[in-house]
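Cross-check.
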Amino acid sequence: ISQTGFVEPNGVDLSYVRLPLLVPSVLFAVMSLTAFLVALVLAYMEDVVPTDDQMRRGVLIPYGAIRLACNTTVPFPRGGLPSILLLFERNAYGNAVFRISTCLPIMLRIFQSLSVRHMVRAKQKCGAIFEITSDLMPALTAVEAFSIALFSIMTIHSDFPMANRFAKLSFAISASLNMLASTLILFHFKSKSNNPLETISVGLKIVSLFVFCYLSPQYFQYHHTVTMQPMCHSYIPRIYALIEYVLVAAYAVFHLSWLIDIRHLQFLCYPRSCSGECEPLDPANFVAGGKYEHCRAFEERQWQMRRGKEEVQGEE
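Predicted model, tokenized:
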């Protein structure tokens, strides 16, 4: 069909499914953030804080329906604050809801990354480095999303300690690389835009990128050291707890800023994109000149139009 010069109609008015990508993105973002906050509240309320004497003698820590015995001579950190990851590690209900928060948006995040990649590649022609970097975005997003989901599912005390630590390491590396690649691509793509929203989006990404990449190695190295010891409580030194809080905030801000980037993207479904049927199933839509005349037997209809033109030209 393309070789004969015919072009399939693909105007927005011909699509029978038109869903702005912003709608499910906002919905899943709200659901994921809500689940995270609920998990944090549940874990904090369920958390047991033993004294130094109890830790030395041994203490039973409740985790759902089971009790975990724990004893250590490591003193309770003076002026310490609760660690978010340790709260989820030690409290069953908080951990269960945390899994919902991390697993729920996986596919949508990958689809968002693919959509932005296609948008950038379609609107801007650049060199090989730009193309390779944009191609890496969906892959890095997938590794990052599955890594955070895995370490939320696998606990250190009951499942696979080494797998949990490997998933956290994989998350830290892939998240840093993904944030770097996304920021570079979108900064280059929007550098000539005068829209203040685009400036805000890129600015938030740059700040979040520097904060996350600078603090994540320090935090995850300390977190790895802490989890090698018996985890009788969820408290860590104040400085590392504050670093963790800032990391979580920077990570959330970075990915929420994607809502600005995808606000104009839409998911369109054309009649010929599916099984060949059109909605609504009204015969009037399929007659010559009807809205969906190209839907059923599109190629045949195009050839009919061509033969009709040839016959008219022959009569003339």
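The two ends are 26 Å apart (CA to CA). The longest strand covers residues 59-63. Passed to J.P. for a second look.
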